[in-house]
Amino acid sequence: MLTAAVLLTGCELNRRKTNERTVERNDADTEMAMQEMVDADKAFSDASAKNGMKKAFLEYIADDAVLLRPGFLPIVEGDAIQFLNAQEDTSFTMTWEPKGADISASKDMGFTYGVYAVKTKDTVLKGTYLSIWKKQKDGKWKFVLDTGNQGVGEKKEEE
């Protein structure tokens, strides 16, 4: 996490919420790059709903990624892929919705955060997440760090 903080704080960031409120942008290319990253996060969630969490995570994880999970030390690189491969995901569906994003001035690294939902046959559990994204050499966005917190209370939407 310290590495992520150093990487992101060393960059000029262009923050915005992904809801309908707009923030004046000073660079159309930066706005487009941020939207591509947010779209990757949304496609990641769609892939999880359609193909299962494990398959989606394996598709969108970078080779050098870190997973932060409750009860575990940071799970790094190849260990993260082994951890994901060991997950059982047939009894639930996991989706999420980005609520905000930020991107570096170099437009090759940023983060998304939002709310996730895990749905079983009769229960819906919600939590929050943060994913740090890096644009790969092939132009695709993959996450380099993913973490989440269980439990979200009901909150009145901002007006």
Care to describe what's here?
The protein has one domain: Nuclear Transport Factor 2, Chain: A (Roll). It has helices spanning 2-9, 28-51, 53-60, 78-85, and strands spanning 16-17, 61-68, 75-76, 93-103, 109-119, 124-135, 141-150. A hairpin with a 6-residue loop joins strand 2 (61-68) and strand 3 (75-76). Helix 2 packs antiparallel against helix 3 (53-60). The relative contact order is 0.20. A 7-stranded mixed sheet has the order 1-4-5-6-7-2-3. It contains 4 helices and 7 strands, in the order H-E-H-H-E-E-H-E-E-E-E. The termini are far apart. With 159 residues, the chain is α+β, with helices and mostly antiparallel strands.
Q: Topology of this protein?
A:
Layout: H1 2-9, E1 16-17, H2 28-51, H3 53-60, E2 61-68, E3 75-76, H4 78-85, E4 93-103, E5 109-119, E6 124-135, E7 141-150
Parallel strand pairs: 2-7
Antiparallel strand pairs: 1-4, 2-3, 4-5, 5-6, 6-7
Helix pairs in contact: 2-3
Keywords, separated by commas or semicolons:
159 residues; disordered N terminus; globular; 7 strands; Nuclear Transport Factor 2, Chain: A; alpha+beta; 7-stranded mixed beta sheet; 4 helices; single chain; 35% strand
